[in-house]
Design brief:
Elements (H helix, E strand, L loop, with lengths): L6 E3 L11 H19 L9 H11 L6 E4 L2 H12 L5 E6 L3 H9 L3 E8 L2 E2 L1 H11 L3 E4 L13 H14 L2 E5 L15 H4 L4 E6 L11 E4 L2 H15 L4 H12 L3 H26 L4 E2 L7 E5 L6 H10 L2 E3 L14 E5 L5 H15 L4
Parallel strand pairs: 1-12, 3-4, 3-6, 6-7, 7-8
Antiparallel strand pairs: 2-9, 4-5, 8-9, 10-11, 11-13
Helix pairs in contact: 1-9, 3-4, 3-8, 5-6, 10-12, 11-12
Length: 362
Amino acid sequence: MSDQNEIKLTRGVPATEAFPTEAIIECCEKALRTYGDTLLQYQPAYGFLPLRKILAEETGAEPGQVIISNGSIQLLGFLAEILLSPGETALVERPSYDRAITTFRRAGMTVVDVPLEEDGLDIAALEEAVERYNPRLLYLIPDFQNPTGITTSRSKREAVLSLADEHGFIVVEDSPYRKLRYKGEDIPALRQLNASRVIQLSSFSKLLSPGIRVGWMVAAKEIVEKAVQIATDTYITPSMLSQGIVYEFIRQGWMPNNIERLKTLYAPKLAKMLTGLDVNIPEGSWSHPQGGFFVGLTLPDGVSGKRLRYYAQQQNLLLSDGCGFFADGDGSRFLRLPFCALKEYEIGEAINRLARAIKPCN
């Protein structure tokens, strides 16, 4: 591959070949022919009832506990408005999803991050933060976390929920990558372990398409009712056609095979990235995910992310700024490496260029 070809290690987007485009076209036609009068009309902001029933059954909830919206980040914004008052504290992982941090701050929250270890939050640090800040909620991505790829162990999930029970805070479990496990055994979702303390968010962005904008939340009925009111005041009615497409895709029984297809597509890319790091950047340290979209890399001592981005650009390699993933902004040695959108040969070349860019930074 020519060094003149730009490679982007920035956004965590699906591969274009991951989209089941023909199946989605078919589902659109079937959904319109079957439910057209509903999907093309204003509807309650709860979302498409047949899809809500499927999600409720899958999560052990009732349809009244489910709201479907235009992506899960919008629902997180609603939650911030419902659960928190300006100045109250939201805890997040360190590092965490940058848009979640932004969402909480935009709502006037104080955002405090708790260090991540290889198997999830540092529980001692979490206990200290809970005692000090008395948070209203803790936001987690427990499965193949964005931006690190780390998965929280069952023992740490149980410890988090025990603290939530003891101190009365809500755990917001964001799980868009949960079904994209390429090896290893599933760990129960936090909501499966303690539904009374957990609000679960997810979407179909990584399983079908981000462009269709279908995200969902499972929570207590009173929280969902408040979210529905905010949604109604915000956009009146959700994107019903997109929800009908997702419902039809599931109804046809195509989702399990599609998920397996995605695993087959993405697993070799993750393996390629991990091998490339082993060979080319042994002085760094990184996560070893078993699924998802990301590998989190801690740069070698003395390497600044800002300086690295400059030298990477000279190699036609674009990197994201790691600082946005840290509530205190101190992410100068962190680098998120998304792999799903790249070809395997691009991943190998990207890590080669990254290694070359690191050398003048020392």
